[in-house]
């Protein structure tokens, strides 16, 4: 790109403090209200004429959000006010490349400070070129959005089939008996990463991480290995139809799980994943249980029981053992598994495609702002 001007970010735009709302937010009506990590509700008033860039200041600091309409930015955020002629969507993508999440020089209170971001260098090409780059990146981002929407549709289909078969478990409108999970399954945590061994023989084995365990399927695009003793290798060895559940982290990971079908030989699991081994599948089906823990019913239980600190929520072994499991007839549970296999496979394939789209988009971002993207 020719005619590039190199400026400090503070010369291009101001990071303006968001404001506390004058009244409570609503659900689903009015103008979007942005917190650090995206839309948190709606309000009858707006603070910023859209489109707008909102950046997390506290909490999920450094997150960069886009609003295509008038909106409100609350007091844990900044919103961007340009000082020079700059295409706002171009600036939005540039801020993503700058990775503001890594810029926190405060040791007392984590957050994004303006004095830290203003000295950052930004390359401005002509306004026309900015618009072209923003259009290309916008088209690529739209593909990612469409793929996410398709995955969400499959999730809705799975949910509707589950409710048709088993009703709403939150109110138990089909009057199923419930019993604690510990009566049906052997539960285990996994191996701790970095564990030191005195044994003379240590094995290097593939293992399942939190990133591998998605909602109803396994992402096996990257399998890492871990060093363990022969004793731990045997102890944590996964078996066919084990259910893998994440212990938490972000609240959306609570109860997230998938059934293991021996996709990788000699595989074990790490300590942030629980292994649930059903002892009698004539009473409880692994795929039915996986959906129970990941359903709104399961999420509600785990969120109620979880230890929560600054947006992080985790459950322990005792809480998982005490999870109340509904017990519909086993034939109905098996019928659900049969119907759901094809949908889950479609979801896995779509997720794999989504990951490739996201990787391509990140590459495109980097090339665009290094001057390596050919624009005509």
Automatic annotation (TrEMBL):
CDD domains: RMtype1_S_Eco933I-TRD2-CR2_like, RMtype1_S_EcoAO83I-TRD1-CR1_like
Claim: DNA-binding is one of the keywords in the record: yes
InterPro entries in alphabetical order: Restrct_endonuc_typeI_TRD, Restrct_endonuc_typeI_TRD_sf, Type-I_RS_S_subunit
Pfam families per UniProt: Methylase_S (PF01420)
Any GO MF annotation of the entry: hydrolase activity
SUPFAM superfamilies reported in the protein's UniProt record: DNA methylase specificity domain
Domain Type I restriction modification DNA specificity: 2-154, 173-335
Superkingdom, taxonomy of origin: Bacteria
Enzyme Commission number(s): 3.1.21.-
Top-level EC class: hydrolase
Keywords noted in UniProt: DNA-binding, Endonuclease, Hydrolase, Nuclease, Restriction system
Family statement drawn from the similarity comment of this UniProt entry: Belongs to the type-I restriction system S methylase family.
Designated name of the protein: Restriction endonuclease subunit S
């Amino acid at each position: 790109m020719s005619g590039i001007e190199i400026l400090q970010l503070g010369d291009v735009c101001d990071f303006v403090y968001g404001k506390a709302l004058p009244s409570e937010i609503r659900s689903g009506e009015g103008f979007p209200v942005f917190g650090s990590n995206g839309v948190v509700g709606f309000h009858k008033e707006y603070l910023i004429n859209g489109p707008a860039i909102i950046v997390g200041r506290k909490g999920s600091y450094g997150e960069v959000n886009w609003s295509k309409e008038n909106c409100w930015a609350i007091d844990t955020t900044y919103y961007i006010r340009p000082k020079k002629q700059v295409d706002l969507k171009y600036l939005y993508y540039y801020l993503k490349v700058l990775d503001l999440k890594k810029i926190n020089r405060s040791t007392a209170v984590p957050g994004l400070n303006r004095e830290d971001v203003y000295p950052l260098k930004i390359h401005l090409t002509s306004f026309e070129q900015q618009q072209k780059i923003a259009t290309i990146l916008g088209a690529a981002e739209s593909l990612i959005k469409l793929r996410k929407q398709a995955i969400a549709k499959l999730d809705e289909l799975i949910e509707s089939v589950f409710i048709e078969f088993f009703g709403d478990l939150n109110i138990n409108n089909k009057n199923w008996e419930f019993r604690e999970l510990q009566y049906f399954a052997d539960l285990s945590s996994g191996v701790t990463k970095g564990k030191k061994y005195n044994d003379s023989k240590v094995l290097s084995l593939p293992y399942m991480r939190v990133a591998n365990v998605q909602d109803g399927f396994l992402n096996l695009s990257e399998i890492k290995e871990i060093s363990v003793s022969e004793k731990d290798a045997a102890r944590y060895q996964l078996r066919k139809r084990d259910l893998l559940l994440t212990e938490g982290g972000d609240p959306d990971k609570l109860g997230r799980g998938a059934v293991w079908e021996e996709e990788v030989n000699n595989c074990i699991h790490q300590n942030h994943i629980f292994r649930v081994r059903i002892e009698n599948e004539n009473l409880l089906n692994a795929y039915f249980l996986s959906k129970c823990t990941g359903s709104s019913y399961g999420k509600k239980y785990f969120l109620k029981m979880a230890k929560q600190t600054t947006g992080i929520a985790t459950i322990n072994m005792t809480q998982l053992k005490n999870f109340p499991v509904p017990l519909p007839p086993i034939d109905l549970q098996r019928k659900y598994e049969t119907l759901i296999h094809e949908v889950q496979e479609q979801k896995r394939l779509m997720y794999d495609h989504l990951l490739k789209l996201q990787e391509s988009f990140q590459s495109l971002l980097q090339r665009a702002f290094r001057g390596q993207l050919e624009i005509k």
